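Blinded run. Sample ID left blank on purpose so nobody reads anything into the name before looking at the predicted structure. Input follows.
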Amino acid sequence: MRLAGRVAVITGGNSGIGLATAHEFKANGAKLAIFGRNRQTLDQAATALGDNTLVVQGDVRVLGDLQRLFEQVSGRFGKIDVLLANAGIAKFASIESMPEELFDELCDIHFKGTFFTVQKALPYMRDGSSIVLVSASDADKQGRVGTSIYTAAKAAVRALARSMSVELLARRIRVNVLSPGMTDTPIISREGGPPGMTPDQLATVITNTIPMRRRGTPQEMAKAALFFASDDSSYCLGSELMVDGGMTQLVNPYLK
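Blinded prediction complete.
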């Protein structure tokens, strides 16, 4: 039980990688709080996760919702040991067709939401705790058609981890980044792909760029999140773990 007795908070914990990580943390002894926008999936997650699980509905873009989240966690469980800032969306548009509303949505959820999730959590976190920010493995490493703002916002998350790590040194709070590659989650089918591309076409195109020739599973990402959340990563600070089947590190031998 690598998280026995510890309190973990997961934003976007009601589906996909967040929910798989919630199950992984719970199996390793954690007390859980999950945060998300969808009441139905939150209730389903709460039923599946069972005892010692707090469910809070809210939006990471709304600072009052975040404040309410951490106040409720503190009231129920006390101090926080692990924070997984995972809330995100996958929406795409070309440079020419990017509307201001989508630009703001992507930046507000991924960049602003991540920053203020950490800021609002800090007064409730123990010294020596762990913060895991979720980015994307190719965010600052590869360019893809229609992904300019999505990847820029995710790359900003990677940059935050470095600066936050420096600022939180005195409290021994470790900030690290989990960067998943293409993962089989509801977000792809729900949000879709770049203009002119269906979700299935997007999944096929990206899968063909992965040296391992398959997409990752939420459970594989959850195992990586557990590493950063636990004492196994005690010497990791400001680092990034790319879990992407080699997509950003290898030249794909299958591509001609």
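Unblinding after everyone has recorded impressions. Helices lie at 16-27, 39-49, 63-77, 100-121, 148-167, 186-191, 199-207, 218-229.
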